Amino acid sequence: MKQEDRKRIYSQEYADLIIEYNVSGEELLTFEKDPRNFIDEKYAVIYFPNSKISEPLVNQSGYYVIPKLFGLVETSSLEEIGVTKIQNIPYLSLRGQDVLLGFIDTGIEYTNPLFQYSDNTTRIVSIWDQSIPNLQATDRTFYYGTEYTREQINEALQSDDPLSIVPSTDEIGHGTALAGLAGGSRLENENFAGVAPAAEYVIVKLKPAKETLRNFFLIPEDAICYQENDIMFGLQYLFNMARRLKKPIAICIGLGTNQGSHGGTGVLSDMINTLSDQVGIAITIAGGNEGNSGHHFYGEVDKSKGYTTVELKVGENEQGFSMELWGGVPGTYSIDMLSPTGQYVPRIPATFNEHRVISFLFENTTVIVDYLLLETQSGDQLILLRFKNSAPGIWRFNVYSGPISSGFHIWLPMRGFISDQTFFVNPNPDTTITNPGNAMFAITVVPYDHTNKSIYIYSSRGYSRTGVVKPELAAPGVNVYTPALNNQFQPQSGSSIAAAFTAGVTAMLLEWGIVKGNDRGMDTVQTKKYLIRGVKRMPNVVYPNKEWGYGMLDVYGIFISLRGEG
């Protein structure tokens, strides 16, 4: 890329759009003069002037081209998941040797002893910090961000001022926590060790989402969020590093969103499914903490009335938010609206690519409605609503269908992207796994309390919108003793904690299978099957189910099952 083109990657005057560049040229005519940054053999990102973005963008170019926004799915465990037993068996003693742990997150506090060998050298192979601009960046880092090597990190660790040499760090702590749980070195003074303490790290620190995209989806200013395309570039970077080093890699994604079909489609899910089929790759994803948030509604149209009413309570000081209605084939859906003060908007017909801007006089609210009768990635119908200056109170929507109704789902934004005072009056806790946790081939994990064997109160629930079993399993994720910034520890809960534990276990399995030669064809799907074989289950509970998947993570149980004792 030319240097002028690289500036667009960071410039707030340009929006990032994702294109499938091997489709017909006619579909891409709008973007033919804009620079392209290739992610893989299918997808690329173009940097499009904000001035050329008109409101009907969704209808003109498709919903998938707009990167979705992802947030952090957060709000004595090694014995619980069988790690200690396995590591105490001399023949196995799996600790992640010659395996990489990959994280796409908030970065890493590389000065923490958790990420160092006993001689105080780093266990980190490289850090790609997307947030530090570098106009000399090469195609190795997709022409943006700054890459720091093991040698540079070691030089920094020997300095009195490490950040003057490698200025990348984790200001939030989320990435540091997950990396520490998955593979942190044993710290005797803290009585702590990660699951795979012999593994090495490859780290991607995501750059914050651009204002244009945040404004389009009406994300609060203080919300931590990242763009889908940056996550995709990060995934490809991890894959490329693993191939370059000829080592297997266990990847952990502790991010999620309620945007998208929740059916395993979308460009990020598509990429995850493709990489999951690669030998030596195991991808674990946090399932989310949306189960009791009130952010999901499921309905079927009442045939006697011809519609079903949805009530949405909007909280005080809710500046704006988006809402997505997804209807499965062969159903066709349309809506009307009633504002809190009684202004009625008649039924908006389900015409092809309808775009409507509706102003509510007394509420001073604007609702932008986009109909996509055939959303490109899923083939299903999407109605996207964006509320600007959203008035508090009860908003009512009647959802109508054509002659055939197959049921519809509506999602509000995930926790952190919307206030706790905005929710559906009659929500449904199922089908609340955040994306990309619905990607079919990935390993999707939810948290439970290992002290009393209860599912986490906020845990998202399955299945996917298309009926795929999600999550596959549950792992410890409630009040877990977790690394924090400045070499501290604190109890934390959430599905990303469970995903970190599981990623560490997948590193152990990759060592057993790939490194030690017991299953050299192991990929994410095969790894998932091993995990499912070993799960612990409670009596009188039917599995799989929407809360626990197939059961509780237990790496020791995997090897018991391989002896024919499971």
TrEMBL record:
Superkingdom as given in the UniProt entry: Bacteria
Keywords (A to Z) from UniProt: Hydrolase, Protease, Serine protease
Active site (UniProt): 105, 174, 496
InterPro entries xref list: Pep_S8_CspA-like, Pept_S8A_subtilisin_clostridia, Peptidase_S8/S53_dom, Peptidase_S8/S53_dom_sf, Peptidase_S8_subtilisin-like, Peptidase_S8_subtilisin-rel
CDD domains documented for this protein: Peptidases_S8_CspA-like (cd07478)
GO MF term list: serine-type endopeptidase activity
PANTHER family in the cross-refs: CEREVISIN-RELATED (PTHR43806:SF11), PEPTIDASE S8 (PTHR43806)
Protein name: Subtilase family protein
Organism: Anaeromicropila populeti
